[in-house]
Amino acid sequence: MAEPILAWWARRQFSKGADVPYPVGAYREAWASYPVLIRQYHPDLNAGIVLSQIPPAADVLLLWQCDAGHTFVATPAEQRARPARGRRRSDWCPDCSALAKPAAVRSGALPRAERVTSTVALCSRTPDLPAGASFASECAPRPASAAEAALRAALFERLSLTTGCNPVRIARPFFDHLEVWPDILLPELRIAVEYDSTGRHGLEHVGNREEADRRKDRALRAARWEVVRVRTGRLEKLGPYDVQASGVSRRTVDRLIDAFRDVRGPLLLDAYLRA
Ligand SMILES: [Zn+2]
C-alpha cells in the first residue's frame, strides 16, 4: 500500500541502513522525459526530498502542484500513467481535467494508435498480404510533424529506396488494424524509422503510450522488420538501435545510417547509399 512520504523514506532508511537511501540525482534520467512532472513536483511539499531521489516505481504518496495551482496526492506510477488519457495539457492534473470541457470528438485529432480503442471490429481495408509486406495504406495518417517530414526527405536523399510505403502488414491486430504505421519505412532494408518527441504538452511516448510503442515494435519484429527510433526530448532508448538526438540534423542522419548498417550489415546498406 502506498505510504506517506516520511513513512516511506524512514522505511527505506532502515532497509538500506543509510541516512540518505537514494542520493540526489539517482533517478534524474528516469524523470527527464517527464518535464511536466518535474515542474509539478516541489521538494517543499514533500519533506524536502527531491524528485531525483524517488524511484519511479516507489509506492509513495507524493504531493504535486499543477501550473494552475491545484495540489493533489498521487504516486509516481499514477502521475506517469496520465499521458494515456488524452492529449490536453489539463490531463496532467485531476482538478484541471475535471474543469476542462469534454474534448470534441474529431477522429483526425486522435493519435494514430488510438483512433478507435473501444471497438472490437477490425478495419477491413488492409489488403490481404503476407505479414511483413509494406504497401500504400488507405488508413495511415499524414506525417505528424515538420521534423518527421524533414527526416524522411533527408533519408531518401541519402538512400536510394522505394518511397511511398507507410504501413506494414502484421499477423495479429494492433488496436483495430492488421497493419502498423511507422513514421518512415525503408522497404528494401525492412527497417521502420520512428521520430519520437514528447510533444507540445509532454504527453507523447511516455507513460502508457510507451507501452503502445513497445507493442508496435514487437509486432514489427514479429513480421521480421527492425525498428530504429530517433528519441528526442530526453526520451530514453526503447530498442537496441535507437538514436538519441535533439532534432533532425546532418549528424542525426549520419548516426541513423550507422544504425542501419549495424542492423543489416555494411554490404547491404552501402548498396543503397547514393554516391
Ligand atoms: Zn490543475
Descriptive notes:
The model is unreliable at 112-119 (pLDDT under 50). This protein has a 4-stranded mixed β-sheet. The chain has a 3-stranded mixed β-sheet with strand order 1-2-3. It is elongated and about 60 Å long. A hairpin with a 5-residue loop joins strand 2 and strand 3 (71-74). Helices cover 31% and strands 15% of the residues. The termini are far apart. It has 2 domains: 3-99, no CATH class; 122-272. Helix 8 packs across helix 9. With 275 residues, it is an alpha/beta fold. The chain has helices at 5-16, 28-32, 35-40, 76-80, 94-99, 146-158, 208-222, 250-264, 266-272, and strands spanning 3-4, 60-65, 71-74, 168-174, 177-180, 184-186, 191-196, 226-231, 243-244. Zinc ion binds at residues 66, 68, 70, 93, 95-96.
Structural Rg:
21 Å
The total tally of domains equals 2
Beta content comes to: 5-15%
What structural class is derived from the secondary structure elements?
alpha/beta
- What is the residue-averaged pLDDT? 90
What is the N-to-C succession of helices and strands?
Answer: EHHHEEHHHEEEEHEEHH
Low-pLDDT ranges: 112-119
The geometry reads as elongated
Number of helices, counting only DSSP H or I runs of 4 residues or more: 9
Distance between the termini: 61 Å
What quaternary form is this? single chain
State the strand order across the main sheet. 6-7-8-9
Listed once per kind, the bound small molecules are:
zinc ion
Largest sheet: 4 strands, mixed
DSSP helix fraction: 25-40%
Number of strands: 9
